[in-house]
Amino acid sequence: MSIDVTDDQALRCFLEGAGIGVPVARFRVLLARAAASPRSYPEDAWMRVFVSEPSEDTKTALRALRAGMATTRPAPDPSRLDALREALAAAGVDGFILPRADEHQGEYIPSFANRLAWLTGFTGSAGVIAVLRDRAALFIDGRYTLQADQQVDTERWERHHVIRTPPSGWIAEHLGGGTLGFDPKLHAIGAANRLRAAIEATGGRLVPLDPNPIDQIWADRPGAPLGPIEGLSTVTTGLSASDKRARIAAAIADAGAAATVLNQAESIAWLLNIRGQDTPYTPLPLAYAIVDSTGAVELFVDPEKLDDRVRAALGNQVSIRPFEEIRPAMTDLGAAGRTVLLDPDTATEWMRMSLEGAGATVIEAEDPCILPRALKNAVEISGIRAAHVRDAAAIVRFLRWVDETAPTGRVTEMGAAEALERFRSEGALWRGPSFPTISGSGPNGAIVHYRVTEHSDRPLGTGELYLVDSGAQYVDGTTDITRTVAIGTPSSEMMERFTLVLKGHIAVATVRFPVGTTGGQLDALARQFLWKAGLDFDHGTGHGVGSFLGVHEGPQRISGTSRVPIQPGMLLSNEPGYYKSGGYGIRIENLILAVEAEPLEDSGRPMIGFETVTFAPIDRRLIVPFMLTEEEIAWLDAYHAAVRSNVSPGLAPSERDWLVEATAPIRG
Amino acid sequence: MSIDVTDDQALRCFLEGAGIGVPVARFRVLLARAAASPRSYPEDAWMRVFVSEPSEDTKTALRALRAGMATTRPAPDPSRLDALREALAAAGVDGFILPRADEHQGEYIPSFANRLAWLTGFTGSAGVIAVLRDRAALFIDGRYTLQADQQVDTERWERHHVIRTPPSGWIAEHLGGGTLGFDPKLHAIGAANRLRAAIEATGGRLVPLDPNPIDQIWADRPGAPLGPIEGLSTVTTGLSASDKRARIAAAIADAGAAATVLNQAESIAWLLNIRGQDTPYTPLPLAYAIVDSTGAVELFVDPEKLDDRVRAALGNQVSIRPFEEIRPAMTDLGAAGRTVLLDPDTATEWMRMSLEGAGATVIEAEDPCILPRALKNAVEISGIRAAHVRDAAAIVRFLRWVDETAPTGRVTEMGAAEALERFRSEGALWRGPSFPTISGSGPNGAIVHYRVTEHSDRPLGTGELYLVDSGAQYVDGTTDITRTVAIGTPSSEMMERFTLVLKGHIAVATVRFPVGTTGGQLDALARQFLWKAGLDFDHGTGHGVGSFLGVHEGPQRISGTSRVPIQPGMLLSNEPGYYKSGGYGIRIENLILAVEAEPLEDSGRPMIGFETVTFAPIDRRLIVPFMLTEEEIAWLDAYHAAVRSNVSPGLAPSERDWLVEATAPIRG
């Protein structure tokens, strides 16, 4: 059955038969938005915004209709920059600054919000542009230098390193005393303040532009995504949304505020025990929320995304309002003279302006959801463990597959990444990758944030290392694991450096430390052995991880600059590495859960240790045993024994045999 | 020859004969100040303020005259607190806060500046008091709890832990909305701001009092110290004062200021290549200085302290003005509308008020002397090495003496400390201890800042550990070393914990790290082994050390909260420990010098390592060899070999034999 989406009569007939109660014209709009949404998990989940339980025929028809909406969008051409300059002139400003971030300030953004990519062609995950009358620049970090050169029109765009040449300095220098437009929806309050100070210091002025001038010229802009929202049960969240609301309400009151406005979908999703499908890799709905000090919540979201079950689960203390009403709602808070808490690192300058402009008093403080979200409860911890054991079965199958097929020379980076996703997709509760898989062989493994393309794809060659960093979203937990595998016989240098990385990994895995110790204090433990050999790695040792939420979630980190104490219940990655440019990359990453340890013998001060929750073999062929201490060998052998006992039950006999071999003790 | 100091005629005759050109009455005043000054090094150095090259007869007479001035001062009685309350009422304030610090904000203060001890009897090195109409409190840290209970009148003084019950909170609670007097000369700008904010938050008001009300009631106050000032040659400083002045002048200009006012004697002494004798343990003159952006300096100091040679060495760009003229000089800076740099952590609120009140603009920034002072130059480094080798000979003699005499049971903590000072005093360029020696046996070793008194003194008992932490000032360097020694046979627990401390010490001694790494990142390396055993120590791993200056000198530290990058040329202590309350204490302390290491192999980024400059045996009888890795044993054996080769040349044959035994390799 194939339906012509332009045929009103046929479409009306299909909608009626399928029980989809929207008019034809509206259906077309929504279908276009569904087509512009990220891939959904399970595959047909996106249909829920049209019908709760579609028949197989309806599914087939909807799939075909959606596929028909997919369009190839043209690459940027110089006319876009010209049009932007005209729009800026019309707005009476001398320049414009645009970050990649969207109004929710999350890590992954839907394509309709990627103004920077539309304008410049640059698709990296971080960047800022500045457009002045006679020059334009893209500011990126070290990992995107090459990609930016390939993707943007280098005649029209200067490329600068965002740390060495910060945008604010470059702008201040070239803007003179002019006016710089910015979209206050896209800049956090603190960042906007710093930008304003820098511009004003050289006699310039920062001017908010609403609407965003790019939105005015972006003719073929995709629709906003239309991911269905699902409610999570306390069976996976461990804490009801009403308990969470009560706790956050108390924190708001303690801060002396009457309410807080949330724009970060991670906080809203955690607080209300809901997940969405509007962003790739993280199951988030695009939404705003106003939480007041009684625990009542107004959720601003497209109503199509919620079905009756989710509405019922949210309860009568959570009112659903259309997404666009966040602005009048903030005006109302202001008119009532409310004191409103905003997090200067996540709430946007637009929120601050809207509230203060309407008469509200803004208190700046950390989003009260951040710390409770980071401290996983007992149910979340059970889910984390269970999700990791299932994930491990897929990883073990994948590693065995690599072992058996890579020596043929016909496995490529892209093929391997696809195989890994296939193995994972067979597991229960799988909801897709938690970030773009890094699948790098040989020299590509040395590119820390490598993302394989058809252009860069290469086989897993003999005598090379293959580095694969991947993760998954499961309803009960988010995973993130890196393994480095020898294809054929590794060099002794590769083995020595792998062993140094492993020693650092073990040092973090086995550390115990008193309450109050920060991630900044632990970071050197992972590097000490590399440092002694004159080596290092140019990224943090670990990042926080959410529960069926962002794979990068604060506030905890293991990084030299972190001042956040590690507390029991925090989930982190432990991922030291080593990268030889043009040669090979090594990274060994497990997730670790901070847990209470025996208190200090003398003072009784509580101590904290880590429980490793990731279970997959660490390639024994890359280890130089005599470089390890007895304790390190004991840890490795015990870890491998745990891998065997946890993962074997989910494996076929032949897979078990491979695992027994891969996890054999160093000291038998 | 004994002269009666009250006999005008005899005194006049002596002064004439000795060539001391001051009138009799003035001589008596100066002599009283000399008597109230700290012990001078060399012993008769204090006489230089009277005569440059005294004959032996003159020396004998001056010694006797000074001894005759020594007075025993009565202990505090309640009348002092009563008198203070009357003075406060007369000044119209409801309370008063007084820190132990003096107007130069240094670590050690002369007795005439110790208002807190005079009022309360408390002689600890850190404390704050608050006196209100009906209650008074002393705020101290954990190391002084017992001592405060013993020294102060507990009926009249509450004692509080300064962290758990901060003075500002206690005052705000009990002062209500009243007025709190403070002496702005004794509070740094930043501290005064925080205090003011806390008091004003509860409706109170902070009122500067000048003069200090205690100075008004302190009848038998000792005179200000009268230590002679000496000039240092570039043979030990490595950099002429004019080069230093040029460098600091440039930093002042770069900061947009016309001048800076210095009150910290450490900065003034470093900048002008002078040392004084006004403070115990650190060779400092009490002085102020105004440094302007041309490099000219006005030095405010008692002119008696300077002889012609020092004046000549200071040169015509340094003008000497009486100490008291610092105030009119600041008024002049203000009247001229100057912009003046002040360090909010070291300059006092009185300086800020005096400058701003007179019309100056104050820029707050770090004292520009701090970082250059911390980065020791090649000549200073040579001096550090040489001073440590000489110090090591004294330490080795002392350790041998302990080994041979302690088993008799007749060596006490006090006797040992005296013996150690005797050994040191025989060495060249010795200028006294760099801090009060910590000489603790058995349970006293577990008291981190233990200072032996006649009351606490106990023998070095068999089966106990003896901990001795001491240091010396030499003209070419400042030392600080801790050794823990087994008297008789140690328990296996003592040995295991000593070995854990040693492993942490070696981890710091051998670490290499990239430029930019902070002391906060390195601290955990020293603790990791203790932590794993459920143990820790409650102090930082290391502090900065000056060059013939303060034994505690910033900005560098190895401590979890330090955010200062370690740079080549910085001198630090490496002193992990373990303290079993009521049992024993362990600390192993060497000084380490940050030095350039081989750069990172891949990026060429500079790396830094440490060179250990302290040379003394680490007690092999306390080491459990199988707890050490091969690398750790290799470090220890190499360290002991270096001790032998560096120290043996300065020892007698029998001492050498002892040293050979004490430094024998673990792996022969």
Q: What is the CATH superfamily of the largest domain in chain A?
A: Creatinase/methionine aminopeptidase superfamily
Q: What is the C-level CATH assignment of the largest domain in chain A?
A: Alpha Beta
Give the spatial strand order of the biggest sheet of chain A.
4-3-2-1-5-6
Shape of chain A: globular
Biggest interface, chains and residue tallies: A-B, 37 and 37 residues
Describe the SSE topology.
The structure is a homodimer of 668-residue chains.
Chain A: H1 8-18, H2 24-35, H3 56-69, H4 78-91, E1 95-99, H5 115-120, E2 128-132, E3 136-140, H6 145-151, E4 158-161, H7 167-175, E5 179-182, H8 189-201, E6 205-208, H9 213-217, E7 230-231, H10 234-237, H11 241-254, E8 259-262, H12 265-272, E9 274-275, E10 288-292, E11 297-300, H13 308-314, E12 318-321, H14 326-335, E13 339-342, H15 349-358, E14 361-364, H16 370-374, H17 378-405, H18 413-425, E15 430-433, E16 438-441, E17 464-470, E18 472-474, E19 477-478, E20 481-487, H19 492-510, E21 512-514, H20 519-532, E22 542-543, E23 557-558, E24 571-574, E25 577-580, E26 584-587, E27 590-597, E28 607-612, H21 630-647, H22 653-662
Helix pairs in contact in A: 2-3, 7-8, 14-15, 17-18, 19-20
Could you explain the architecture of this structure?
Two copies of one chain form a homodimer. Chain A is α+β, with helices and mostly antiparallel strands and 668 residues long. The first copy, chain A, has four domains: 8-69; 79-217, Creatine Amidinohydrolase, Chain A, domain 1 (3-Layer(aba) Sandwich), CATH 3.40.350; 230-366, Creatinase/prolidase N-terminal domain (Creatine Amidinohydrolase, Chain A, domain 1, 3-Layer(aba) Sandwich); 378-655, Alpha-Beta Complex (Creatine Amidinohydrolase). The first copy, chain A, has 22 helices and 28 strands. A six-stranded mixed beta sheet of chain A has the order 4-3-2-1-5-6, sandwiched between helices. In chain A, a hairpin with a 4-residue loop joins strand 10 and strand 11. The longest helix of chain A has 28 residues, at 378-405. Chain A is globular, with a radius of gyration of 26 Å. Chain A starts with 7 loop residues before the first helix and ends in a 6-residue tail after the last helix. At the A-B interface, strand 21 and helix 20 of A face strand 21 and helix 20 of B.
